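TICKET: design request
STATUS: open
ATTACHED STRUCTURE:
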């Protein structure tokens, strides 16, 4: 083979090797680009949270104030057309929330403050409510039967002076949940540890000897906490207090009819307004015992929604 032929063969071989290497590199680059595009497309693809939760809001007991208000919200917001409110119990709602958060899965629940779930899960958030169906921050108010001030003036005075904070109530609920102790027991410890605040409620109240007082309350942990605390504080002045748990409609009826002395479980001006309007002329409104209560639709922080209007109608 002459020198020219050898030279040509070398050039041809080198060119072929370069072409093969170039093609391989191109394929790898194309694969990398494809993978990169797939990853980008995947990360940019919005999650349809409405579809993920099957167009369902996980709620609590039928007839509860927040249940009634959420039913109104479903009617008021056009984008909630076809949505369902799953009604069961507070315990079932919290269990579902706990499981979802543990697995970082989407969930939408009815929520309210005070409640221990906000102490356990500080990253929970309320969805904005542009139509104002759930109202602004609310108060929990004390209502007394007509004639209580005349019949039992010291009981009336103490109930009227009872006032505490959202954090107080939530601390009792959370401790009960974490320790497994009954709310009544935790409430007694809270009263012992917060005598400075309790003394303000007792100021000017005379000691009595076994005067009976009956309070109507709902069976929810928030109201169990407040009623237990008030009952324990009243016992320091000699009152014999009975707390009767009933559904929310019966709470207002009982006070309005004079069947019980008072309740400290009225969420106003919105949540229990329908019940309040029926008895407002038959009760004495003592004003707020807790300010800054709130209700609404709640999601974990990792659910990328900010407003009720971000939800999509069921197909």
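STATUS: resolved
RESOLUTION: sequence designed for all positions
ATTACHED SEQUENCE:
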């Amino acid at each position: 083979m002459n020198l020219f032929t050898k030279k040509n063969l070398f050039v041809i071989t080198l060119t072929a090797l370069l072409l093969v290497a170039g093609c391989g590199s191109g394929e790898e680059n194309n694969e990398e680009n494809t993978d990169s595009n797939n990853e980008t497309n995947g990360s940019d693809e919005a999650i349809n949270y409405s579809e993920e939760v099957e167009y369902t809001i996980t709620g609590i007991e039928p007839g509860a104030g927040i249940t009634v208000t959420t039913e109104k919200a479903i009617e008021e917001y056009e984008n909630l057309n076809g949505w369902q409110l799953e009604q069961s119990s507070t315990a079932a709602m919290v269990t579902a929330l706990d499981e979802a958060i543990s697995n970082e899965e989407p969930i939408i629940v009815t929520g309210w403050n005070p409640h221990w779930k906000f102490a356990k899960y500080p990253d929970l958030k309320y969805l904005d409510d542009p139509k104002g169906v759930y109202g602004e921050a609310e108060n929990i108010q004390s209502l007394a039967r007509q004639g209580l001030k005349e019949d039992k003036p010291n009981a009336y005075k103490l109930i009227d002076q009872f006032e505490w904070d959202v954090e107080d109530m939530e601390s009792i609920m959370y401790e009960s949940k974490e320790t497994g102790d009954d709310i009544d027991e935790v409430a007694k410890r809270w009263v012992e540890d917060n005598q400075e605040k309790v003394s303000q409620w007792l100021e000017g109240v005379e000691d009595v000897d076994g005067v009976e007082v009956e309070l109507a309350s709902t069976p929810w942990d928030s109201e169990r906490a407040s009623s237990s605390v008030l009952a324990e504080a009243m016992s320091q002045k000699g009152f014999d207090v009975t707390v009767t748990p009933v559904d929310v409609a019966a709470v207002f009826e009982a006070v309005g009819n004079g069947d019980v002395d008072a309740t400290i479980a009225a969420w106003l001006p919105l949540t229990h307004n329908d019940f309040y309007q029926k008895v407002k002329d038959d009760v004495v409104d003592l004003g707020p015992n807790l300010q800054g209560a709130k209700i609404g639709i709640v999601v974990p922080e990792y659910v990328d929604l900010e407003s009720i209007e971000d939800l999509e109608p069921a197909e």
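CLOSING REMARK: The longest strand covers residues 283-300. The mean pLDDT is 88.
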